[in-house]
Design brief:
Layout (H helix, E strand, L loop, with lengths): L1 H17 L6 H11 L3 H8 L9 H7 L4 E2 L7 H7 L12 H24 L7 H22 L33 H15 L17 H15 L2 H12 L14 H4 L3 H8 L7 E8 L2 H4 L5 E2 L2 H7 L8 E2 L18 E4 L7 E11 H15 L2 H12 L3 E2 L9 H4 L3 H8 L4 H16 L6 H7 L4 E4 L5 E4 L25
Antiparallel strand pairs: 1-3, 2-6, 4-7, 5-6, 8-9
Length: about 500
Protein backbone atom coordinates (compact mmCIF):
# COMPACT_ATOMS: atom_id res chain seq x y z
CA UNK A 1 0.00 0.00 0.00
CA UNK A 2 2.69 2.53 0.99
CA UNK A 3 4.75 1.77 -2.13
CA UNK A 4 1.72 2.37 -4.36
CA UNK A 5 0.97 5.63 -2.55
CA UNK A 6 4.51 6.82 -3.29
CA UNK A 7 4.03 6.03 -6.97
CA UNK A 8 0.70 7.87 -6.98
CA UNK A 9 2.55 10.97 -5.78
CA UNK A 10 4.82 10.55 -8.78
CA UNK A 11 1.83 10.99 -11.09
CA UNK A 12 1.22 14.39 -9.55
CA UNK A 13 4.83 15.34 -10.01
CA UNK A 14 4.68 14.41 -13.69
CA UNK A 15 1.46 16.29 -14.32
CA UNK A 16 2.90 19.41 -12.72
CA UNK A 17 6.09 18.96 -14.71
CA UNK A 18 4.07 19.00 -17.93
CA UNK A 19 2.23 22.13 -16.95
CA UNK A 20 4.70 24.18 -15.05
CA UNK A 21 6.02 22.62 -11.85
CA UNK A 22 8.78 20.10 -11.33
CA UNK A 23 9.09 16.40 -10.67
CA UNK A 24 10.74 13.19 -11.77
CA UNK A 25 8.13 11.05 -13.48
CA UNK A 26 10.51 8.89 -15.47
CA UNK A 27 11.92 7.46 -12.24
CA UNK A 28 8.56 6.26 -10.93
CA UNK A 29 6.49 5.26 -13.94
CA UNK A 30 7.84 1.69 -14.42
CA UNK A 31 7.17 0.81 -10.78
CA UNK A 32 3.69 2.23 -10.98
CA UNK A 33 2.90 0.20 -14.11
CA UNK A 34 4.04 -2.97 -12.36
CA UNK A 35 1.98 -2.35 -9.24
CA UNK A 36 -1.34 -1.60 -10.91
CA UNK A 37 -2.00 -5.32 -11.22
CA UNK A 38 -5.51 -5.65 -9.74
CA UNK A 39 -8.86 -3.84 -9.85
CA UNK A 40 -8.42 -2.88 -6.20
CA UNK A 41 -5.09 -1.15 -6.86
CA UNK A 42 -6.52 0.70 -9.83
CA UNK A 43 -9.36 1.77 -7.55
CA UNK A 44 -6.85 3.05 -5.01
CA UNK A 45 -5.13 5.06 -7.70
CA UNK A 46 -8.45 6.60 -8.74
CA UNK A 47 -8.79 8.20 -5.31
CA UNK A 48 -6.28 10.71 -6.72
CA UNK A 49 -8.23 11.30 -9.95
CA UNK A 50 -10.14 14.20 -8.37
CA UNK A 51 -8.54 17.68 -8.25
CA UNK A 52 -6.84 18.11 -4.90
CA UNK A 53 -7.31 21.87 -4.88
CA UNK A 54 -9.98 24.45 -4.12
CA UNK A 55 -11.53 26.74 -6.74
CA UNK A 56 -13.79 28.54 -4.25
CA UNK A 57 -11.33 31.24 -3.03
CA UNK A 58 -10.99 32.83 -6.46
CA UNK A 59 -14.41 32.05 -8.00
CA UNK A 60 -16.29 33.38 -4.97
CA UNK A 61 -14.19 36.55 -4.84
CA UNK A 62 -14.65 37.21 -8.56
CA UNK A 63 -18.43 37.14 -8.12
CA UNK A 64 -20.97 39.67 -6.88
CA UNK A 65 -21.25 37.84 -3.55
CA UNK A 66 -18.44 39.91 -2.02
CA UNK A 67 -17.62 43.50 -1.14
CA UNK A 68 -14.78 45.50 0.39
CA UNK A 69 -14.93 45.60 4.20
CA UNK A 70 -12.10 48.12 4.33
CA UNK A 71 -10.28 45.97 6.85
CA UNK A 72 -9.17 42.37 7.25
CA UNK A 73 -6.69 39.92 5.81
CA UNK A 74 -6.20 40.31 2.04
CA UNK A 75 -3.61 37.93 0.54
CA UNK A 76 -3.19 38.04 -3.21
CA UNK A 77 -5.60 35.11 -3.69
CA UNK A 78 -8.28 37.33 -2.13
CA UNK A 79 -7.30 40.81 -3.34
CA UNK A 80 -6.41 40.10 -6.99
CA UNK A 81 -9.73 38.45 -7.97
CA UNK A 82 -11.68 41.25 -6.29
CA UNK A 83 -9.80 43.82 -8.37
CA UNK A 84 -10.28 41.66 -11.50
CA UNK A 85 -6.53 41.09 -11.79
CA UNK A 86 -4.55 37.93 -12.57
CA UNK A 87 -3.47 36.07 -9.44
CA UNK A 88 0.33 36.01 -9.41
CA UNK A 89 0.44 33.43 -6.61
CA UNK A 90 1.02 29.82 -7.67
CA UNK A 91 0.35 28.19 -4.35
CA UNK A 92 -2.66 26.77 -2.53
CA UNK A 93 -6.03 28.40 -3.33
CA UNK A 94 -4.72 30.05 -6.52
CA UNK A 95 -5.89 29.42 -10.11
CA UNK A 96 -2.46 28.04 -11.04
CA UNK A 97 -2.61 25.57 -8.15
CA UNK A 98 -6.06 24.46 -9.31
CA UNK A 99 -4.88 24.11 -12.93
CA UNK A 100 -2.02 21.86 -11.83
CA UNK A 101 -4.29 19.82 -9.57
CA UNK A 102 -6.71 19.18 -12.43
CA UNK A 103 -3.99 17.88 -14.70
CA UNK A 104 -2.62 15.78 -11.84
CA UNK A 105 -6.08 14.21 -11.50
CA UNK A 106 -6.25 13.69 -15.27
CA UNK A 107 -2.86 11.96 -15.22
CA UNK A 108 -4.10 9.57 -12.53
CA UNK A 109 -7.21 8.75 -14.58
CA UNK A 110 -5.07 8.12 -17.65
CA UNK A 111 -2.74 5.80 -15.73
CA UNK A 112 -5.75 3.86 -14.50
CA UNK A 113 -7.16 3.55 -18.01
CA UNK A 114 -3.79 2.39 -19.33
CA UNK A 115 -3.59 -0.29 -16.63
CA UNK A 116 -7.14 -1.45 -17.36
CA UNK A 117 -6.35 -1.76 -21.07
CA UNK A 118 -3.17 -3.65 -20.27
CA UNK A 119 -5.21 -6.20 -18.29
CA UNK A 120 -7.56 -6.83 -21.19
CA UNK A 121 -10.34 -4.44 -20.22
CA UNK A 122 -12.00 -7.29 -18.33
CA UNK A 123 -15.31 -7.16 -16.47
CA UNK A 124 -13.78 -6.72 -13.01
CA UNK A 125 -12.17 -3.46 -14.14
CA UNK A 126 -15.27 -1.93 -15.73
CA UNK A 127 -16.51 0.10 -12.72
CA UNK A 128 -13.05 1.63 -12.38
CA UNK A 129 -12.90 2.34 -16.09
CA UNK A 130 -16.18 4.18 -15.74
CA UNK A 131 -14.88 6.20 -12.80
CA UNK A 132 -11.66 7.06 -14.61
CA UNK A 133 -13.52 8.30 -17.68
CA UNK A 134 -16.00 10.40 -15.72
CA UNK A 135 -13.28 11.82 -13.46
CA UNK A 136 -11.19 12.72 -16.51
CA UNK A 137 -14.20 14.43 -18.05
CA UNK A 138 -14.89 16.38 -14.85
CA UNK A 139 -11.35 17.75 -14.48
CA UNK A 140 -11.30 18.86 -18.11
CA UNK A 141 -14.76 20.42 -17.71
CA UNK A 142 -13.62 22.50 -14.76
CA UNK A 143 -10.54 23.62 -16.69
CA UNK A 144 -12.41 24.65 -19.84
CA UNK A 145 -15.05 26.41 -17.75
CA UNK A 146 -12.54 28.50 -15.81
CA UNK A 147 -9.71 28.99 -18.32
CA UNK A 148 -11.68 29.42 -21.56
CA UNK A 149 -14.70 31.32 -22.78
CA UNK A 150 -18.12 29.93 -21.91
CA UNK A 151 -19.67 27.52 -24.41
CA UNK A 152 -21.84 29.06 -27.12
CA UNK A 153 -22.82 26.75 -29.97
CA UNK A 154 -22.34 29.39 -32.66
CA UNK A 155 -18.81 30.29 -31.47
CA UNK A 156 -17.41 27.23 -29.69
CA UNK A 157 -15.65 25.88 -32.79
CA UNK A 158 -13.51 29.02 -33.01
CA UNK A 159 -12.79 29.67 -29.32
CA UNK A 160 -9.52 28.41 -27.77
CA UNK A 161 -10.13 25.77 -25.13
CA UNK A 162 -7.62 23.80 -23.05
CA UNK A 163 -5.45 20.73 -23.76
CA UNK A 164 -7.52 17.53 -23.56
CA UNK A 165 -5.06 14.90 -22.36
CA UNK A 166 -6.04 11.26 -22.91
CA UNK A 167 -2.71 9.44 -22.88
CA UNK A 168 -0.02 8.63 -20.36
CA UNK A 169 3.03 10.57 -21.49
CA UNK A 170 6.57 9.20 -21.38
CA UNK A 171 8.47 12.37 -22.24
CA UNK A 172 9.45 15.21 -19.96
CA UNK A 173 8.29 18.10 -22.15
CA UNK A 174 5.59 17.61 -24.74
CA UNK A 175 3.96 20.21 -26.95
CA UNK A 176 0.26 20.60 -26.24
CA UNK A 177 -2.54 22.11 -28.28
CA UNK A 178 -5.36 24.04 -26.63
CA UNK A 179 -7.94 22.73 -29.11
CA UNK A 180 -11.26 24.58 -29.34
CA UNK A 181 -14.01 24.83 -26.77
CA UNK A 182 -16.20 22.74 -29.10
CA UNK A 183 -13.56 19.99 -29.29
CA UNK A 184 -13.10 19.94 -25.52
CA UNK A 185 -16.86 19.71 -24.96
CA UNK A 186 -17.07 16.86 -27.47
CA UNK A 187 -14.35 14.93 -25.64
CA UNK A 188 -15.95 15.59 -22.26
CA UNK A 189 -19.26 14.28 -23.54
CA UNK A 190 -17.61 11.19 -25.04
CA UNK A 191 -15.84 10.32 -21.78
CA UNK A 192 -18.91 11.05 -19.68
CA UNK A 193 -21.32 9.03 -21.80
CA UNK A 194 -18.92 6.10 -22.11
CA UNK A 195 -18.08 6.06 -18.43
CA UNK A 196 -21.47 6.61 -16.84
CA UNK A 197 -23.10 3.23 -17.66
CA UNK A 198 -19.99 1.39 -16.43
CA UNK A 199 -20.20 2.75 -12.88
CA UNK A 200 -21.06 0.39 -10.05
CA UNK A 201 -21.63 2.00 -6.65
CA UNK A 202 -21.10 -1.33 -4.90
CA UNK A 203 -17.31 -1.26 -5.43
CA UNK A 204 -16.86 1.81 -3.20
CA UNK A 205 -16.21 1.61 0.52
CA UNK A 206 -16.84 5.37 0.83
CA UNK A 207 -19.10 6.16 -2.14
CA UNK A 208 -19.54 9.90 -1.44
CA UNK A 209 -15.88 10.47 -2.39
CA UNK A 210 -16.24 8.85 -5.81
CA UNK A 211 -18.31 9.28 -8.93
CA UNK A 212 -21.29 7.12 -8.11
CA UNK A 213 -24.07 6.91 -10.67
CA UNK A 214 -25.93 9.70 -8.86
CA UNK A 215 -22.89 11.98 -8.76
CA UNK A 216 -22.10 11.30 -12.42
CA UNK A 217 -25.66 12.14 -13.46
CA UNK A 218 -25.39 15.34 -11.40
CA UNK A 219 -22.23 16.20 -13.33
CA UNK A 220 -24.03 15.46 -16.60
CA UNK A 221 -26.85 17.74 -15.48
CA UNK A 222 -24.37 20.60 -15.00
CA UNK A 223 -22.49 19.85 -18.22
CA UNK A 224 -25.62 19.93 -20.38
CA UNK A 225 -26.81 23.10 -18.65
CA UNK A 226 -23.61 24.78 -19.82
CA UNK A 227 -24.14 23.27 -23.26
CA UNK A 228 -27.77 24.50 -23.26
CA UNK A 229 -29.11 21.03 -24.07
CA UNK A 230 -32.05 21.42 -21.72
CA UNK A 231 -33.82 18.14 -22.47
CA UNK A 232 -30.69 16.27 -21.38
CA UNK A 233 -30.41 18.43 -18.26
CA UNK A 234 -33.86 17.23 -17.23
CA UNK A 235 -33.05 13.63 -18.19
CA UNK A 236 -29.89 13.45 -16.10
CA UNK A 237 -31.36 15.44 -13.21
CA UNK A 238 -34.22 12.93 -13.03
CA UNK A 239 -31.73 10.06 -13.08
CA UNK A 240 -29.94 11.27 -9.93
CA UNK A 241 -32.71 10.19 -7.56
CA UNK A 242 -35.04 8.39 -9.95
CA UNK A 243 -37.26 11.35 -10.85
CA UNK A 244 -40.02 13.03 -8.92
CA UNK A 245 -39.64 15.51 -6.09
CA UNK A 246 -36.14 16.23 -4.79
CA UNK A 247 -37.45 17.77 -1.57
CA UNK A 248 -36.53 14.76 0.64
CA UNK A 249 -32.88 15.11 -0.39
CA UNK A 250 -32.50 18.84 0.33
CA UNK A 251 -30.96 20.25 3.50
CA UNK A 252 -33.84 21.03 5.91
CA UNK A 253 -32.48 24.47 6.79
CA UNK A 254 -35.76 25.78 8.25
CA UNK A 255 -36.45 22.69 10.36
CA UNK A 256 -36.34 22.89 14.16
CA UNK A 257 -33.57 20.28 14.27
CA UNK A 258 -31.36 22.16 11.80
CA UNK A 259 -31.94 25.55 13.42
CA UNK A 260 -30.99 24.14 16.82
CA UNK A 261 -27.49 23.18 15.66
CA UNK A 262 -24.59 25.24 17.00
CA UNK A 263 -21.91 26.83 14.82
CA UNK A 264 -19.41 23.95 14.86
CA UNK A 265 -22.22 21.45 14.42
CA UNK A 266 -23.44 23.33 11.35
CA UNK A 267 -19.93 23.21 9.87
CA UNK A 268 -19.81 19.45 10.32
CA UNK A 269 -23.38 18.89 9.15
CA UNK A 270 -22.91 20.71 5.86
CA UNK A 271 -20.30 18.30 4.53
CA UNK A 272 -21.29 15.05 6.23
CA UNK A 273 -20.90 12.07 3.92
CA UNK A 274 -24.24 10.64 5.09
CA UNK A 275 -26.09 13.87 4.34
CA UNK A 276 -28.37 12.91 1.42
CA UNK A 277 -27.83 16.32 -0.18
CA UNK A 278 -24.13 15.66 -0.71
CA UNK A 279 -23.55 13.66 -3.88
CA UNK A 280 -19.78 14.07 -4.28
CA UNK A 281 -17.32 15.35 -1.69
CA UNK A 282 -13.63 16.17 -2.05
CA UNK A 283 -11.14 16.73 0.75
CA UNK A 284 -8.77 19.42 -0.50
CA UNK A 285 -5.81 21.34 0.95
CA UNK A 286 -7.08 24.87 1.54
CA UNK A 287 -7.21 27.63 4.12
CA UNK A 288 -10.64 28.76 2.88
CA UNK A 289 -12.64 27.40 5.81
CA UNK A 290 -10.66 29.30 8.41
CA UNK A 291 -10.12 32.42 6.28
CA UNK A 292 -13.28 33.36 4.39
CA UNK A 293 -15.15 35.07 7.27
CA UNK A 294 -12.22 37.42 7.97
CA UNK A 295 -11.04 38.13 4.42
CA UNK A 296 -11.20 41.82 3.57
CA UNK A 297 -12.96 41.07 0.30
CA UNK A 298 -15.87 38.96 1.38
CA UNK A 299 -19.49 38.85 2.50
CA UNK A 300 -20.61 42.27 3.75
CA UNK A 301 -23.83 43.80 5.06
CA UNK A 302 -24.54 45.12 1.57
CA UNK A 303 -24.45 41.61 0.06
CA UNK A 304 -26.42 40.27 3.02
CA UNK A 305 -29.26 42.68 2.33
CA UNK A 306 -29.16 42.06 -1.41
CA UNK A 307 -28.97 38.27 -1.35
CA UNK A 308 -31.17 37.52 1.68
CA UNK A 309 -33.62 40.41 1.35
CA UNK A 310 -37.03 40.24 -0.30
CA UNK A 311 -37.81 37.17 -2.41
CA UNK A 312 -40.76 35.92 -4.49
CA UNK A 313 -42.19 33.78 -1.68
CA UNK A 314 -42.96 36.75 0.55
CA UNK A 315 -41.30 34.90 3.42
CA UNK A 316 -37.87 35.29 5.00
CA UNK A 317 -34.72 33.23 4.54
CA UNK A 318 -34.09 31.07 7.62
CA UNK A 319 -30.32 30.71 7.30
CA UNK A 320 -28.41 31.60 10.45
CA UNK A 321 -25.95 34.41 9.64
CA UNK A 322 -23.10 34.47 12.13
CA UNK A 323 -20.42 36.97 13.11
CA UNK A 324 -20.15 40.73 13.41
CA UNK A 325 -20.15 43.18 10.51
CA UNK A 326 -16.58 42.37 9.39
CA UNK A 327 -16.82 38.58 9.69
CA UNK A 328 -20.35 37.75 8.53
CA UNK A 329 -20.67 34.14 7.40
CA UNK A 330 -22.75 31.00 7.14
CA UNK A 331 -20.84 28.03 8.64
CA UNK A 332 -20.13 25.42 5.98
CA UNK A 333 -16.56 24.13 6.29
CA UNK A 334 -14.98 22.21 9.18
CA UNK A 335 -11.19 22.28 8.99
CA UNK A 336 -9.07 19.17 9.35
CA UNK A 337 -5.48 20.13 10.18
CA UNK A 338 -2.74 17.60 9.49
CA UNK A 339 0.52 18.30 11.32
CA UNK A 340 3.81 17.64 9.56
CA UNK A 341 4.86 15.48 12.51
CA UNK A 342 3.52 14.47 15.89
CA UNK A 343 4.89 17.50 17.76
CA UNK A 344 4.98 19.97 14.88
CA UNK A 345 3.28 23.35 14.99
CA UNK A 346 2.95 23.51 11.20
CA UNK A 347 1.01 21.37 8.77
CA UNK A 348 -1.67 21.45 6.07
CA UNK A 349 -5.27 22.54 6.50
CA UNK A 350 -7.96 20.57 4.67
CA UNK A 351 -11.63 21.27 4.00
CA UNK A 352 -14.32 18.96 2.74
CA UNK A 353 -15.91 20.60 -0.32
CA UNK A 354 -19.24 19.51 -1.81
CA UNK A 355 -18.65 19.20 -5.56
CA UNK A 356 -22.22 18.16 -6.40
CA UNK A 357 -25.38 18.43 -4.32
CA UNK A 358 -29.08 17.70 -4.59
CA UNK A 359 -29.77 21.45 -4.47
CA UNK A 360 -27.74 22.05 -7.62
CA UNK A 361 -29.56 19.23 -9.41
CA UNK A 362 -32.91 20.79 -8.47
CA UNK A 363 -31.83 24.21 -9.75
CA UNK A 364 -30.49 22.73 -12.98
CA UNK A 365 -33.75 20.92 -13.61
CA UNK A 366 -35.86 23.97 -12.76
CA UNK A 367 -33.89 26.22 -15.12
CA UNK A 368 -33.96 23.64 -17.91
CA UNK A 369 -37.72 23.16 -17.54
CA UNK A 370 -38.19 26.92 -17.62
CA UNK A 371 -36.26 27.10 -20.88
CA UNK A 372 -38.30 24.21 -22.29
CA UNK A 373 -41.59 25.88 -21.39
CA UNK A 374 -42.40 23.34 -18.68
CA UNK A 375 -43.36 26.07 -16.23
CA UNK A 376 -45.42 23.86 -13.90
CA UNK A 377 -42.48 21.51 -13.34
CA UNK A 378 -40.09 24.41 -12.78
CA UNK A 379 -42.45 25.95 -10.23
CA UNK A 380 -42.75 22.61 -8.43
CA UNK A 381 -38.98 22.42 -7.96
CA UNK A 382 -38.73 26.02 -6.77
CA UNK A 383 -41.53 25.48 -4.26
CA UNK A 384 -39.89 22.28 -3.01
CA UNK A 385 -36.71 24.27 -2.43
CA UNK A 386 -38.53 27.18 -0.77
CA UNK A 387 -40.24 24.74 1.61
CA UNK A 388 -36.83 23.91 3.10
CA UNK A 389 -35.47 27.48 3.31
CA UNK A 390 -38.25 30.01 3.91
CA UNK A 391 -40.19 30.97 7.01
CA UNK A 392 -42.97 33.27 8.22
CA UNK A 393 -40.81 35.57 10.38
CA UNK A 394 -37.63 35.57 12.44
CA UNK A 395 -39.73 34.86 15.53
CA UNK A 396 -41.69 32.13 13.74
CA UNK A 397 -39.45 30.73 10.95
CA UNK A 398 -41.97 28.17 9.72
CA UNK A 399 -42.84 27.65 6.06
CA UNK A 400 -46.55 28.14 5.40
CA UNK A 401 -47.53 26.81 1.94
CA UNK A 402 -50.67 28.93 1.74
CA UNK A 403 -48.55 32.06 2.20
CA UNK A 404 -45.21 31.18 0.66
CA UNK A 405 -45.93 29.04 -2.40
CA UNK A 406 -44.69 30.66 -5.60
CA UNK A 407 -47.11 30.99 -8.49
CA UNK A 408 -47.19 32.77 -11.82
CA UNK A 409 -48.59 36.04 -10.50
CA UNK A 410 -46.07 36.24 -7.68
CA UNK A 411 -43.13 35.65 -10.00
CA UNK A 412 -44.20 38.04 -12.73
CA UNK A 413 -44.98 40.75 -10.19
CA UNK A 414 -41.78 40.33 -8.22
CA UNK A 415 -39.50 40.44 -11.27
CA UNK A 416 -41.55 43.01 -13.18
CA UNK A 417 -41.83 41.05 -16.40
CA UNK A 418 -44.50 39.48 -18.60
CA UNK A 419 -42.21 36.53 -19.45
CA UNK A 420 -42.67 33.45 -17.29
CA UNK A 421 -39.44 31.99 -18.67
CA UNK A 422 -37.48 35.07 -17.65
CA UNK A 423 -39.05 35.22 -14.18
CA UNK A 424 -38.39 31.53 -13.49
CA UNK A 425 -34.75 31.73 -14.55
CA UNK A 426 -34.20 34.85 -12.45
CA UNK A 427 -35.73 33.09 -9.46
CA UNK A 428 -33.50 30.06 -9.98
CA UNK A 429 -30.41 32.26 -10.13
CA UNK A 430 -31.44 34.22 -7.03
CA UNK A 431 -32.12 31.06 -5.03
CA UNK A 432 -28.84 29.53 -6.19
CA UNK A 433 -26.93 32.66 -5.23
CA UNK A 434 -28.19 32.42 -1.67
CA UNK A 435 -27.85 28.66 -1.43
CA UNK A 436 -24.23 28.47 -2.61
CA UNK A 437 -22.89 31.53 -0.77
CA UNK A 438 -19.21 30.91 0.16
CA UNK A 439 -19.05 27.98 -2.32
CA UNK A 440 -17.96 29.74 -5.51
CA UNK A 441 -20.78 28.50 -7.75
CA UNK A 442 -22.25 31.96 -8.31
CA UNK A 443 -19.30 32.63 -10.65
CA UNK A 444 -20.35 29.72 -12.86
CA UNK A 445 -23.79 31.29 -13.35
CA UNK A 446 -22.20 34.68 -14.04
CA UNK A 447 -20.06 33.32 -16.86
CA UNK A 448 -22.84 31.04 -18.16
CA UNK A 449 -25.33 33.91 -18.41
CA UNK A 450 -22.69 36.50 -19.33
CA UNK A 451 -23.63 38.73 -16.39
CA UNK A 452 -21.64 41.80 -15.44
CA UNK A 453 -20.07 42.22 -12.00
CA UNK A 454 -19.45 45.47 -10.12
CA UNK A 455 -17.05 45.67 -7.18
CA UNK A 456 -16.71 48.82 -5.08
CA UNK A 457 -13.68 49.61 -2.96
CA UNK A 458 -13.42 51.31 0.42
CA UNK A 459 -11.79 54.34 -1.26
CA UNK A 460 -14.89 54.81 -3.47
CA UNK A 461 -13.60 53.28 -6.70
CA UNK A 462 -15.95 51.27 -8.89
CA UNK A 463 -14.51 48.21 -10.65
CA UNK A 464 -16.57 46.77 -13.49
CA UNK A 465 -16.23 43.39 -15.16
CA UNK A 466 -18.35 43.63 -18.29
CA UNK A 467 -19.93 40.74 -20.21
CA UNK A 468 -17.12 40.62 -22.80
CA UNK A 469 -14.18 41.55 -20.58
CA UNK A 470 -11.19 39.21 -21.19
CA UNK A 471 -10.52 39.18 -17.44
CA UNK A 472 -13.58 36.96 -17.04
CA UNK A 473 -11.39 34.12 -18.32
CA UNK A 474 -8.69 33.01 -15.90
CA UNK A 475 -5.16 33.29 -17.22
CA UNK A 476 -3.38 30.11 -18.31
CA UNK A 477 -0.37 29.63 -15.98
CA UNK A 478 2.74 31.30 -17.40
CA UNK A 479 4.74 28.10 -16.96
CA UNK A 480 2.37 26.26 -19.29
CA UNK A 481 3.97 28.09 -22.19
CA UNK A 482 6.80 25.56 -21.91
CA UNK A 483 4.37 23.03 -23.38
CA UNK A 484 3.30 25.40 -26.14
CA UNK A 485 0.04 26.47 -24.56
CA UNK A 486 -0.98 29.94 -25.69
CA UNK A 487 -1.97 32.39 -22.95
CA UNK A 488 -5.35 34.08 -22.85
CA UNK A 489 -5.52 37.67 -24.17
CA UNK A 490 -5.31 40.53 -21.72
Amino acid sequence: MKRLQRKIKGIGAFAMLLFGACGNYLDVSPDLRAELDSPEKVGELLATAYPQANYIPFTETLSDNVGDKGTGNAPVVNSAPYHFEDVADIYQDSPTYYWNACYTAIAAANHALQAIARHGDTEAYQPYKGEALVARAYAHFMLVTLFAQAYEEYAAASLPGIPYVTEVEDVVIKRYERHTVAYVYEQIENDLMEGLPLLDDAVYVSPKYHFTSAAAHAFASRFYLFKKDYAKVVEHSNAVFGGGSLQPYLRPVNSMAYRSLQYLELEAEYTRADNPSNLLLAEVPTSWGRSYPAYRYGFTVSELNEIFGENPTGGIWTYGIYGSETVLNIPKFREHFVKQSLHAETGIAYNMVPLFTAEEVLFNRAEANAMLGNFTDALADLNDYASTRMGYSYQDPVYVPELHSIDRDKLLGFYGTFSMEEALVKCVLDFKRANFLHEGLRWFDIIRHNLGVIHRTADNRTLTLGPNDPMRILQIPQEAQRSGIELNPR
